Amino acid sequence: MIHSTAIVHPNARIGAGVSIGAYSVIEEFVEIGDNTTIASHVVIKGRTKIGRDNKIYQFASLGEIPQDKKYSGEPTRLEIGDRNTIREFSTFSLGTVQDSGVTRLGDDNWLMAYVHIAHDCQVGSNTIFANNAQLAGHVHIDDWAVLGGYTGVHQFCRVGAHCMTAAASIIVQDVPPYVLAAGNTASPYGLNVEGLKRRGFSSESLQALKRAYRILYKSGLTLEEARAKLIAEAAIHPEVQRFVDFLAVSKRGIIR
Question: Which of 116, 119, 140, 162 is catalytic?
Answer without folding.
Answer: 119
